[in-house]
Automatic annotation (TrEMBL):
Protein name as catalogued: malate dehydrogenase
The keyword Metal-binding belongs to this UniProt entry's keyword annotation: no
Signal peptide extent: none
CDD domains: MDH_glyoxysomal_mitochondrial (cd01337)
Stretches assigned to the Lactate/malate dehydrogenase N-terminal domain: 20-164
Catalytic site positions: 196 (proton acceptor)
Family, similarity comment: Belongs to the LDH/MDH superfamily. MDH type 1 family.
Any one GO biological process: carboxylic acid metabolic process
The keyword Oxidoreductase is assigned to this record: yes
EC number: 1.1.1.37
Enzyme category, top tier: oxidoreductase
Organism: Jimgerdemannia flammicorona
Catalytic activity: (S)-malate + NAD(+) = oxaloacetate + NADH + H(+)
Length: 339
C-alpha cells in the first residue's frame, strides 16, 4: 500500500472527524484516473482509496500531491490490497473492466467483465458491506444484477445502496439538446430512463421545456441512444468514453455525498432495483431517484424515492416497449451468471 508519512499523519487527523471514504476499483484506467482526480477535488472526501491490478501506487502518489482534503492511499492486489482498499468505505465506485472496440456491443464485454465485477462484489460483501456501490463497468444492464446477486448470496444486499451509473446518458442528452437549441447545457434538463445500452436508453424529450419537430426527436433519440458508439468509433480501437464518463461518475458520487449533508433533496438518474416495471418482470430500471439525507456521520442514505416516468408521448411508449425485452434479457443474463 502506498501511504506517505505526511499522508498517514493527515489521515489520523482526518479519521478523528466525520469522514467520507471513497474507493475507486479500476482506478488506474481510462475512467479511473480522471474520476479519481475529480473525487480528490471534493472537500467532503477525507479518504480517497484507489485500487487497481496495475499502477495504483503511482496514481495514488500523483493524486496525493494535490492540496485538497482527501488523504490518498493506493492499493494493488498484493498483501490483501483489495481488502485494505475497501475497509470502511462509504462509497465504492467500479470502473474496472475492459472497454468496447468498434463493432462490439456492450453485451460483448460480458464474457470478460462479468467475472471481474463478480469478484469485486464478493470482496465488497466481505470487507465493506455497508458501502454504497456505484457500477460503471459495462454492460451495466447486467453488471448491476450481478452485484445484487453476489451481495444477496452474502446476505448484505440493500437495494437502496446499489446504483448503475447512467448519468452519462443524461449528460449527453442535455448537451445534444443544448447544441440544437443553443442553450446552456448545464441548465438543460432532459430525463432519460430505461437502461444503459442502445435501445434500452430512452430519452423523454416530450417532458423537456423545449419543443421539437418529429425529425428532431427521432435524430436526437438515436444520437442519445448511440452516443457511446460515436466515441468508440472516434477512438478507433483504443477504448470508449473516459473523460465524459469520469465527469458523469464524479457528478453522481458527489450528489450522493452532497445528499449526506441533508441540506436539500438531491435527484439523480440511476439504474436501481425498481418497482416501475416489476409487473413485467423487470427488476432493475433507470429513472430519476431522490438520494436520501445522512443517517449517521457523513454516510448517505441511498435511494429515498424512485420517481415514476410521468406522461409519455406515443413515440416514447414505443421506445419503452422496445427497451423492455432487451433489458429483461440483460438482467436475466447477469442473474444466471451468479446462480
Ligand atoms: P480501461 O481499460 O482504460 O481501464 C480499466 C481498468 O480496470 C484498468 O486499469 C484495469 O487494470 C482495471 N482492472 C481490470 N481488472 C480489474 C480488477 N479485477 N480489479 C481492479 N481493476 C481491474 O477501461 P475504461 O475506459 O476505464 O472503461 C472501464 C469500463 O467502464 C468498461 O467496461 C467500459 O465499457 C465502462 N464504461 C461505462 C460507462 C457508463 O456510462 N456506465 C461509460 C464509459 C465506459
Ligand atoms: C458509453 O456510453 O460511452 C459507455 O457505455 C461506453 C461504451 O461502450 O459506449
Amino acid at each position: 500500500m502506498f501511504t506517505s508519512i505526511v499522508a498517514k499523519r493527515a489521515f489520523s487527523t482526518a479519521t478523528k472527524q466525520k469522514s467520507t471514504k471513497v474507493t475507486v476499483l479500476g482506478a488506474a484506467g481510462g475512467i479511473g484516473q480522471p474520476l479519481s482526480l475529480l473525487l480528490k477535488r471534493n472537500s467532503q472526501v477525507n479518504h480517497l482509496s484507489v485500487y487497481d491490478i496495475v499502477n495504483a501506487p503511482g496514481v495514488a502518489a500523483d493524486l496525493s500531491h494535490i492540496n485538497t482534503n482527501a488523504v490518498v492511499t493506493g492499493h494493488g492486489p498484493e498483501n490483501n490490497g483489495l481488502e485494505t482498499a475497501l475497509e470502511g468505505s462509504d462509497i465504492v465506485v467500479i470502473p474496472a473492466g475492459i472497454p468496447r472496440k468498434p463493432d462490439m456491443t456492450r453485451d460483448d464485454l460480458f464474457s470478460t467483465n462479468a467475472s471481474i465485477v463478480r469478484d469485486l462484489a464478493t470482496a465488497i460483501a466481505k470487507h465493506s458491506p455497508k458501502a454504497h456501490v456505484l457500477i460503471i463497468s459495462n454492460p451495466v444492464n447486467s453488471t448491476v444484477p450481478i452485484v445484487a446477486e453476489v451481495l444477496k448470496l452474502h446476505g448484505v444486499f440493500d437495494p437502496k445502496r446499489l446504483f448503475g451509473v447512467t448519468s452519462l446518458d443524461v449528460i449527453r442528452a442535455s448537451r445534444f439538446v443544448s447544441e440544437l437549441k443553443d442553450t446552456d447545457g448545464s441548465k438543460t434538463k432532459i430525463t432519460v430512463v430505461g437502461g444503459h445500452s442502445g435501445v434500452t436508453i430512452v430519452p423523454l424529450l416530450s417532458q423537456s421545456s423545449h419543443s421539437f419537430t418529429e425529425d428532431e426527436i427521432k435524430a436526437l433519440t438515436h444520437r442519445i441512444q448511440f452516443g457511446g458508439d460515436e466515441v468508440v468509433k472516434a477512438k478507433n480501437g483504443t477504448g470508449s468514453a473516459t473523460l465524459s464518463m469520469a465527469f458523469a461518475g464524479a457528478k453522481f458520487a458527489n450528489a450522493l455525498i452532497s445528499a449526506a449533508s441533508g441540506k436539500k433533496t438531491v435527484t439523480e438518474p440511476t439504474y436501481v432495483q425498481s418497482p416501475l416495471f416489476a409487473d413485467e418482470g423487470i427488476e432493475f430500471f433507470a429513472s430519476n431517484v431522490d438520494l436520501g439525507v445522512r443517517v449517521s456521520c457523513f454516510r448517505p442514505n441511498g435511494v429515498e424515492k424512485i420517481h415514476g416516468l410521468g406522461e409519455l408521448s406515443p413515440y416514447e411508449e414505443s421506445l419503452i416497449a422496445a427497451a423492455i425485452p432487451e433489458l429483461r434479457d440483460n438482467i436475466e443474463k447477469g442473474k444466471k451468471f451468479v446462480a
